[in-house]
């Protein structure tokens, strides 16, 4: 099968701040490139000029939880239509640093915002005509970097100036982690849990193994 006739593949990276997602996304991208795939590396909130502007607001401005959720989903809609769907239609591999599970974890788990409202927004935003019949776009695989908030905080200490979310107390991140666990429990076939407390090489190997176990990457 030629690269362009392969179906697209959508993988999201999730976890609390400092769990190691950004450290490992490029290594997986290279593994796919070595296997002859075209890779689109992207992130949420962000990934388009408009969504990056919304990211600047979401990460730096105080706002109420519904406003925050709407900003995340507005950015997502733009990103989905302009970047993710076209890439999947071309047969590319999309590696996305966070997607909707982050909204359920941060706005739902962390902020305590209504999960049913988030589920409604998810349906509105991610029902795309490219799927026949039009259906909800979800990642084919979600790698959840599971790490204790205390270790993540140690890793982030001094690394950079904390944004609005990174400045939250440890209890917030315990709730975010609970949000991720609930999403995985609701859709276990889509998720692979990565033990992000391991040292870097072991995490990298676990990521590749999880992708292979789901039948991707040869
Ligand atoms: N397995 C590991 N062991 C120790 N330190 C690590 C490991 N993986 C990543 N780090 C370090 O932890 C810090 C946070 O990693 P990284 O930026 O990849 O996390 P992230 O999940 O992308 O965070 P954020 O969501 O806040 O952007 C970095 O300084 C990185 O070098
Ligand atoms: C997609 C998404 C993200 N967030 C939060 C989670 C992080 O604290 C920041 C993004 O920063 P990163 O360094 O790129 O990880 O935004 C959120 O609260 N809700 C979301 O839907």
Question: Briefly, what is this?
Answer:
It holds the Pfam family Thymidylate_kin. Helix content is 52%, strand content 15%.
Classify the fold: give the CATH topology: Rossmann fold
CATH superfamily grouping? P-loop containing nucleotide triphosphate hydrolases
Instruction: Give the end-to-end Cα distance, rounded to a whole number of Å.
Output: 13 Å
> Based on the structure given, which CATH architecture is correct?
3-Layer(aba) Sandwich
Q: Class by helix and strand content?
A: alpha/beta
If helices are DSSP runs of H or I spanning 4 or more residues, what is the number of helices? 8
Task: Report the sheet-strand fraction.
Answer: 5-15%
Work out the number of β strands. 7
User: Could you tell me which ligands this complex binds, including any ions or cofactors?
Assistant: adenosine-5'-triphosphate, the ligand Cc1cn([C@H]2C[C@H](O)[C@@H](COP(=O)(O)O)O2)c(=O)[nH]c1=O
Using only CA atoms, what is the Rg?
A: 17 Å
**What's the helix-strand series?**
EHEHHEHHEEEHHEH
* Helical amount: 40-55%
- As residue ranges, the low-confidence spans are none
Number of domains: 1
CATH class: Alpha Beta
**Overall 3D form:** globular
What is the average of the pLDDT values? 95
Major beta sheet, specifics? 5 strands, parallel
EC number: 2.7.4.9
Domain Thymidylate kinase-like: 13-205
GO biological process, one term: dTDP biosynthetic process
Pfam family, one: Thymidylate_kin
